[in-house]
Structures
1.
Amino acid sequence: MKALIIGRFQPLHIGHLDLAKQIHEKGYELIIGIGDNGRERTKRYPFNHKEVKKMWEPYKEELKAKIFRIPDIPNDSSYAEHVENITGCNELDTVIVSGNKHTIDCFTKYNRNYKIITLERDLKSNFPEICGTKIRNLIKENKDWKSHSQKVKKESHETSLNVKTKRVGESSEEGSDESDDDYYDKSSSS
């Protein structure tokens, strides 16, 4: 059985990693869907999908995870099908891991009946003090945010997060030559 964790991970933090590890330890094949609004950085979304993917990379092997970019679409009723086409997931072999009501609705309404795993009901947060909004506010205020985001693997800080401390509105040169085709995990079928 697959478990799809779908989110923007702005930024990826220890709470996200803890949830992914719990899902992996329950025996699920982990699929990570990184939401992409396709727009410039904002205060709410200071990292683009390529930067978020780099944050996940140090954990990919350990979690045996597949990572996919999930571009936004303007139609909630087609969103589950959109994600299925990208990831190869379906409601017969995949559970959705999310605490976001909008995401849950996209996978449980519109003739979809995915099983949902939520933090509130099915998992226990070992890091309740970690909050993406608080971390984004630290970024916006140019304060130390990295110590609040990832504590599991130091190299993730160094290879991903330290590189990406540009202010909202600045472009990122690193990885700009990476095509979206290189971003998709080609081994999704099974």
2.
Amino acid sequence: MKIGLIAGSGQFPLIFSKKAKEKGFAVYAVAYLNEADPSLKDHVKVMEWVHLGQVSRVIKFFKKHEVSEAVMMGAIKKTRMFSDVRPDIKAISLIATMLHTHDDNILRAFAQVLEDEGIRIRESTFLLPELLATRGCWTKRKPGRSEKADIEQGWNIIKKIGKLNIGQCVVVSGGSVLAVEAIDGTDATIARGGKLAKKGAVVVKACKPTQDVRFDIPAAGVQTIQTMREVGAKVLVIEAGRTVVFDREEMIALANKSGISIVGQSDETQDLKSAPFDKTRHKIRRNPQTKNSGQPVSPRAKPEVLRVGVVGVGYLGKFHAEKYANMDDAKLVGVVDIDTSQAEAVAEKFGAKAYGNYQELMGKVDAVSIVVPTQAHFAVGRDFLENDIDVLIEKPMTVTLEEAEELIRIAESRGLIMQVGHLERFNPAVVALRNIVKKPMFIESHRLSVYKNRGTDVSVVLDLMIHDIDIILNFVRSEVKEIRASGVSVISGHVDIANARLEFENGCVANVTASRISMKNERKIRLFQKDAYVSVDFASHEIIIVHQKGEAAENPKSKTELIPGMGVDRMSFVKGDALEEELKSFVKAVKKRETSEVTGQMGRDALKIALSIMEQIRVRGRA
């Protein structure tokens, strides 16, 4: 694999080259004279020095070495852009077509020229997502009340002046703006503002709204803290997900030693982990079909490409990793498994990093799939939520109702997305039922499976039946008033076959059967409602509707009259990828900060019924 590198000053090009080499890339570098570090040549396959403005030479170099993808990184002193440029004909032609020659516009136009020549420009962090700033207060010292007011003011100002292409940094103290970044850069801005403040200044650094972070992303590091220390500044705020941080541990250590706070913030909303929860800053969107199903979600923005991870990459988890790896708007950053060889195999296959401990994902991901044994769902889910990371937890969401309610509480208090992995919600046949099933009064479901040595760590009620419980609750929309259940353990140490009769407050009755020791696989549900009978085969993705004429959607080609006055419609669906649709739904909810398709409350409601069924079976077994 080949990757091109257009290198300016600083350590970013060096860090990238080393990581690219580790990942198996051969790096072909174009380095700007008087900017790039000469030692870069030791970490790349081929390097060529060029002057600023030599656009044709850059293109010729990449084409010579058959490079079709490249990254742009490292600083260029803005003062040199006006004094030390040797533009070739292509550069002159490029600039001549531009209405505004801000550095942002020049970089964007340069990138477009490269892409027009068949050289795709990739995000500078595509191999280094761990460098991106995370949300929260990173240091022992937290911002005080007056500093929080300065943070809010500074954040609003930096976003407004960013629209004018002025700069990425502002210094505030006591409600006054002391310095705004100009052509001299961030460190000089901190020095100017800090001297005026005498001590206690707040430094806010963020992306401009129109900034193209593929090649122009704010950076912070030890030098930033050192400059703040010299002028007595006390708070650094950087934009989470849109700022790269170098030497993070050293930076935090120096900040702690100097009594400086570092805060990662996003989308004009003060970080929830370091500030009191403010209900007025959150909106609750409810699924109109389900009572008490809404969960508060934070309006904070997520990066354009979501950083995701998978914890547990066994049989099911590896498919989660595969689906994420193939998404355009998500980046699989890391996979975790206690079997490190399995983690490494999956990571290598899908271009991610392998870990043996899920704690190592903290700070590296925005969202995560938790696909570990059910007994570990609560502990793992709680840790990610408490680190402000959105989660998708496989069903059943927890072992106990108390654990489920605690996860819901944490997610709601922090404005986080929590989705439960009830996969059948995304089966094409189930999706189609939303417009067909109105008010069912009798339901019969069978979910039978041949024996597999998988999922036997829990009862068949939690392994299989819970799918149908969730579907039934979603369609009936009424409280369960009575449950009668029976079941038996045949092969495993848990119940392997079970039947339950659910009676609802609205009069509906559901008869639910699940078995993992059947001679055949069968997944069917039949729903009876006024004037219609609906039969669904989940395996074949087929729906049969028997209805009074005129009551269902017309389909003359498939309709026959088997019963006087009744018609039959048959609907077939191409086999879809329910898991892919489920994960896309989760990613969409996280990025748009909207209620997930299967909320924590919905997962909790299905779990409550499943646990009640299991308790009845347990009591019957002792009788």
3.
Amino acid sequence: MTNLPALGERTIWIDCDVIQADGGTRTASITGAFVALALALEKLRERDVIRTIPLSDYVAAISVGIVDGEPLLDLAYDDDSRADVDMNIVKTGDGRFIEVQGTAEAIPFGRDALMTLLDLADLGITQLVEKQRAIVGHLVKRPMTTMRTADAQDRRAFSACRDAALSQRSSRTPIGEMLALVVGRGALRARVHDGRGPRAR
């Protein structure tokens, strides 16, 4: 959700140092890394290196899973170590998927269970985005649509792809498509490289 051409000839590194591995560290790092990125971009703008903040939406991630037959949000280590299903979800603020990674650790799970976990992840990510908004909302100017709106848009896109595939008699459908706040979970910092060496931000 970053306009990379607006950065010019620069590279941004975001270091996520795990302080306490109590579960959910990867997803917490992603959620916190977005905040670190926004703050680093704000520094660049203050120094007149860039003119605008090239962020169009939020990015947040959460873990979900099934433990002892019960869907859980933000798995702690004890839950994760004995989960029947373990899944990480990364989404934009308006509800579009960036990554869905899930594994049946024991018994395979069905579509109903998958949809339950995705809905649960939506609840968690919505809360995380609100926490991000409280910190860097002044840097992300695009109004956030609801996840329900994004889902409706996805359904329309899916229908269009399906209809096009059927009209071509094709079997292939081209579907393209916390921060608890990292406090106690990880420390983050962003570094910007402009060809003259990295500097901590």
